Each structure stands twice: as structure tokens, then as C-alpha cells.
């Protein structure tokens, strides 16, 4: 009995001590607490409102609100109208001064719901709006009364929007700096002429029906287009444009229709290209066909093709960029051995980074071509971890190919001394 009494006393004593312990978390400043709540899903953050009076509305002041697949759980099977109402109710309690992200994939969501979310976000002065709906909903052609909204970033993914509607929205957002439109099948013609005035970054991707794109933006610094060839792309009055990224079939315009880029080509400092296998098959990338990138300092290439193809034609981009400082390659490209790279020494290239070096003959030849022309090279980074192989279930095959790549990289370093090699293995 004495033993039991002793245990009971100890338990009671520990309970008393625990009751006396202070709530250290609640003593933290609101700024730290809201940053912690920001890391939680909206549902979990909202549950903290029952902890105390201080916590009641604290979750509504997180820097950004992310609603992601929120109604997809079995206990939340609501009809579209109720789903829409729930999200709007969240808006009502939220302090809408920062960012709003909605990532939904509901079959029952309607275009009317989407329009309500956009209008509500703008009416409540949200600064960043990101809609990713995965079901191609359409923004209706109903213009709300708008003027000078503080939106600075707008991202639309799989949201169908026609040019007239998009032009209306962005023209009423004078502070808009970043605009991203992806996978909008309704976008055919888009004209952004001096509106919005502060636009500095504009990206268009996978809008398969786009035919005409006209841009005049005095503060535009970065522009990207990924997709098929389009009838007309005009960029004028873009004095600050220094970075462009192209992908898909439109990459061919660099070689075959360079006049499209004449208005800004001489001011480019960074060029990013995403080549597909089909584009590689049609592109020779000869230094005699490419325009001269007279101010280009950095080139990033990502070429998606099969293992072992020759990378020789990519040397043309280096040769066409006399002031190039950094060349970054992520695996691949085509086989056209019709001119000798060593006849074109490059005086400014200081650093090369190669991701996905596999040690094959074509990769080794391309590396040697680079080293032959880069007479001022200081650093060569070779990443031998090949992405596709690293995901393979055949571990033995991965190890074998990895060893081949490492040995080949070391031999390259031995054959061209005097350079700082960083072989990531």
C-alpha cells in the first residue's frame, strides 16, 4: 500500500508542476507566431483559434493564405456552391493584405466560382494572386468596376482567359510587376502596350492557340515563352530587357527567324533555352547562321533527348556570344559535325557548369571542344549524377554508368590542366 500511495503522490505532484508551467509559445511575439502558423495547412492553422482569446484571430494574419485541395477529403464532400461559399468565408476572416494561392481540382467547380474568387481577391486588395485550377475553367467576360488595385503578382495556370479580359484586369493593376499565364487554351491574341506600367517579368507557357503577342513595356526585365511557333511576336520599347527564356518549337526562331529578336538582341545578358527532341532534330545551330549576342554573359541550356547524342552543335551558342562568362548545360543535343570548334577561340568565358555528364563519347568530345575554345576558362564544374539514371530501380546499372562518368571526367581534367575542376560525384 505504501508503494501505491507513494506513486499516487508523485503523479499528483507532477500534475501540479505541469499546471504551473507557463505557456512559453504564447509569449512569443505575434510576428513569430504568424510565421509558424504560415507553415501549417489552412485547416490546422484555423484550429489554433480555440486555444485562447489571443489565438482566436491570429491565424488570419499569416503573410499568405494557401487553399490547396482543401475540400478533397471525404469529410468535406460539399457541392460546388457551398465550396465556393466556404472559401469566400475564409477571405472574410482573413486579413487580405498579402498573398492568396488557390490550388484546386474539383470537377464541380464552375467558371462563375472562379470569377467570384478573382473579383473578391481584387476587392479585398490582395497583392499576390495565384490560381491553379487543373480543370481549365474560364474567366467570364464580365468586367467588374476596377481602379488602381495593389496587385503586384498574378499567376494563372490552367485558367482559360481571352486576351481582352486579361488586358482589362492587368490594365487596372498599375503596380503589377509579375505576370505568368500557363495552359490557357482560350488565349489567342494578347496586347500589353505600356500597361501595366511597372511590369518587369512576363512569362507565357503552353498556350497552344496563341497567335499574336504584342508587348511594349519600358520596365520589362525578364520575358519567357514556351510553346509552338506563333504568327506574330512583337517586343518593342523594352529598353531594360536583359533576360529571355524560350522553349518548345519557338526555340527555332533563334536560328531561323532571328529578325523577331532584333529589337532587343544586343541588350540581352542571359539566355535560357529549353530544347525538345523534335526541335533538336530540325536545328543545326551553326555559328554561321546564329546572330551575334554581343552582350550575352550567361547561357543556360536544357535539352531533352536520348543518351549518347552528340552535343557538338551547342558550341555555336558559345561562339556567337563573345562576352560570355557562364555556360550551363543540363544534358543532351544533336549531331552535326560540319565545322571545327577549335577555329573559334573564346576570350571571355571563365566558368562552365555541366549537369548530367554521363561519360559517353559524345559528352567527352563536347567537353573537349569547350575546353579547346575557352582559352580563358578558370572553373569547370562537372555534375556526374545523371537525373534519369538516378531514378532507375536498377542500382547496379546506375553505379556502373556513374563510375564511367567519373572516370571520364577525371581523364578530361588530366588532359587539360591549369583549370580548377569541380567534379561532383
From TrEMBL:
SUPFAM superfamilies: F-box domain, L domain-like. InterPro entries: At1g61320/At1g61330-like (IPR053772), F-box-like_dom_sf (IPR036047), F-box_AtFBL13-like (IPR053781), F-box_dom (IPR001810), LRR_At1g61320_AtMIF1 (IPR055357), LRR_dom_sf (IPR032675). Pfam families: F-box, LRR_At1g61320_AtMIF1. Residues 22-70 form the F-box domain. PANTHER family: FBD DOMAIN-CONTAINING PROTEIN (PTHR34145:SF68), OS02G0105600 PROTEIN (PTHR34145). This is F-box domain-containing protein. It comes from Quercus lobata.
Amino acid at each position: 500500500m505504501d508503494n501505491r500511495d507513494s506513486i499516487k503522490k508523485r503523479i499528483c505532484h507532477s500534475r501540479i508542476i505541469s499546471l504551473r508551467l507557463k505557456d512559453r509559445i504564447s509569449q512569443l511575439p505575434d510576428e513569430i507566431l504568424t510565421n509558424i502558423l504560415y507553415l501549417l495547412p489552412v485547416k490546422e492553422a484555423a484550429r489554433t483559434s480555440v486555444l485562447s482569446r489571443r489565438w482566436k484571430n491570429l491565424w488570419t494574419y499569416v503573410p499568405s493564405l494557401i487553399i490547396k485541395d482543401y475540400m478533397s477529403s471525404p469529410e468535406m464532400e460539399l457541392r460546388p456552391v457551398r465550396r465556393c461559399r466556404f472559401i469566400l468565408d475564409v477571405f472574410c476572416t482573413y486579413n487580405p493584405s498579402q498573398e492568396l494561392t488557390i490550388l484546386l481540382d474539383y470537377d464541380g467547380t464552375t467558371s462563375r466560382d472562379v470569377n467570384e474568387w478573382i473579383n473578391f481577391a481584387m476587392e479585398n486588395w490582395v497583392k499576390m494572386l495565384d490560381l491553379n485550377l487543373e480543370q481549365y475553367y474560364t474567366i467570364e467576360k464580365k468586367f467588374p468596376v476596377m481602379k488602381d488595385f495593389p496587385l503586384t503578382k498574378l499567376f494563372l495556370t490552367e485558367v482559360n482567359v481571352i486576351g481582352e479580359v486579361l488586358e482589362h484586369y492587368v490594365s487596372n493593376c498599375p503596380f503589377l510587376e509579375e505576370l505568368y499565364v500557363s495552359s490557357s487554351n482560350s488565349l489567342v491574341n494578347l496586347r500589353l502596350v505600356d500597361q501595366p506600367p511597372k511590369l518587369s517579368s512576363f512569362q507565357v507557357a503552353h498556350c497552344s492557340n496563341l497567335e499574336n503577342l504584342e508587348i511594349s513595356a519600358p520596365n520589362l526585365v525578364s520575358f519567357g515563352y514556351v510553346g509552338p511557333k506563333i504568327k506574330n511576336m512583337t517586343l518593342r520599347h523594352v529598353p531594360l530587357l536583359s533576360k529571355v527564356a524560350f522553349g518548345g518549337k519557338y526555340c527555332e526562331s533563334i536560328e531561323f527567324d532571328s529578325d523577331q529578336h532584333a529589337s532587343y538582341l544586343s541588350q540581352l545578358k542571359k539566355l535560357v533555352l529549353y530544347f525538345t527532341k523534335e526541335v533538336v532534330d530540325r536545328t543545326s545551330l551553326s555559328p554561321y547562321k546564329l546572330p551575334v549576342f554581343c552582350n550575352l554573359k550567361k547561357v543556360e541550356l536544357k535539352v531533352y533527348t536520348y543518351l549518347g547524342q552528340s552535343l557538338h552543335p551547342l558550341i555555336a551558342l558559345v561562339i556567337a556570344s563573345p562576352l560570355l562568362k557562364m555556360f550551363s548545360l543540363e544534358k543532351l543535343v544533336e549531331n552535326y559535325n560540319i565545322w571545327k570548334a577549335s577555329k573559334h577561340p573564346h576570350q571571355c568565358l571563365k566558368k562552365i557548369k555541366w549537369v548530367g555528364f554521363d561519360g559517353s563519347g559524345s559528352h567527352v568530345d563536347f567537353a573537349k571542344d569547350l575546353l579547346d575554345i575557352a582559352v580563358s576558362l578558370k572553373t569547370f564544374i562537372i555534375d556526374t549524377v545523371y537525373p534519369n539514371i538516378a531514378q532507375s530501380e536498377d542500382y547496379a546499372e546506375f553505379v556502373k554508368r556513374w563510375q564511367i562518368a567519373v572516370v571520364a571526367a577525371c581523364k578530361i581534367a588530366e588532359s587539360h590542366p591549369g583549370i580548377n575542376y569541380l567534379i561532383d560525384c
